[in-house]
Design a protein that fits this description.
The structure is a single chain. By secondary structure, this protein is mainly alpha-helical. The protein has helices spanning about 1-45, 50-90. The relative contact order is 0.15.
Length: about 90
């Protein structure tokens, strides 16, 4: 029974680590997209193709995605770190 509990614990730790990796990659992609959108918005607003209000709304929406993913990554890292500390205690 103890071996099963350790195995279950290790699976949870691995899953937490995988979530950190996934969210790290996702955050980088979303930050790149945000930078691109900001640059694109400036060009489109300056040539009159897009209103400042629409540009701000689009950039704000992407910023919200970045902020959400950043928060989720922070929580996932805390979970991973807590599981790693717990795993160290079982050794």
């Amino acid at each position: 029974q103890n071996a099963a509990a350790v195995l279950d614990f290790q699976r949870n730790a691995a899953a937490a680590g995988d979530e950190v990796s996934k969210l790290t990659v996702q955050l980088a992609a979303e930050q790149d997209k945000l930078a691109h959108m900001k640059s694109q918005a400036n060009v489109l607003v300056s040539n009159g193709s897009l209103s400042q209000v629409d540009a701000d709304a689009g950039v704000s929406s992407q910023q919200s995605r970045v902020d959400d993913t950043s928060s989720r990554l922070s929580v996932a890292r805390q979970m991973r770190d807590a599981l790693n500390v717990e795993a160290e205690g079982h050794r």
